[in-house]
Give the backbone structure.
Amino acid sequence: MTESQRPSGEYPMYPSYGNGDAAYPPPPAHQPAQPISTGPGTTVWPGSGGAGHSGGDSHGGFGQGLPQPAPQPSRHGRRARRPVALLAAVAVAAAVVGGVTATAVGQFIGTGSNGTDSSSVVNGTTVSQSSTGTVAGVAKAVSPTIVEIGATSTAGESTGSGVIITSDGEIVTNNHVIAGASSIKVTLSTGRTYTAKIVGTDADKDLALIKLEGASGLKTATLGDSSGIKVGDQVVAIGSPEGLTGTVTSGIVSALNRDVTVAKDSEGGQEQGQQGGGSDWPFEFGGRQFNGDTGNSTTTYKAIQTDASLNPGNSGGALINMNGEIIGINSAMYSASSSGGSSSSGAGSVGLGFAIPVNTLKADLDTLRDGNGS
């Protein structure tokens, strides 16, 4: 034990403020003020001056006036900060990795296998995202799938339209377009022509399926869902009125479930757009006949009514929604001519056209492909 060299009783005994004999100066007559810690690395001492030793010793004034070194943080404190620093480093690393991952995922999702932005294509169609909802976008995407059909029969030559549904040349159209035809010629939007044969017909639904000979790699239309159509929906019609291939018109769905009656065969009338004149294809609606006499053999179906302009030659063409999906096959139009068998010179669209719902077609496809029908 270190001994003090001072005479006994000269100073009260206090713990040394130093090491052994080097303890100096003597301790104050009162308990030194304790520092106030306000945070790591900062110490505040109470008081502002050095009130000296009561005996006036020149070595008094210790404790209150003299700054003391800030207490060093304990080992425990140093260890406590290490996890905080580690967590901060992990958070930064996670943010970097997360950003890279998000970028990679975004590129994976936004890019198709061909390297194109998948957001530029609407599912089920070829209408670009920027053109969705525009007549121009729908026309550009769907026009290559619409064809002109020229049918020759004992009644003469007539013109209608059709929709390509397979790349090897299956085409749907109205039964009355090809009824009684001895030969069929089909012209694509590119101007290329093919001969076609009849695969199947369904006169009760006024639908027919024909097949091009020697065709392959054709662009096909997307068959939509007519159950979701609402009055007021915007639509586009594409066909070959009066032989004007690829004519585009637009309008809205003006009514649903209209009972339209048409002739089952060519004896009741001739196809819209017959070359060289003749009556338009007749139909009945609301108990009245339009465009001529429908004859004795007729069929009635529930039709979509549209104010998109339809003219002779549009029969068998497409009624399309704004996503580029086929929702109907155009089949009849009201003309300004009298209900009698007058000349087609008075024919023309007055905003009353009718189309067979595409769901009717989809339900009938297998029957048509089997060559069956009514």
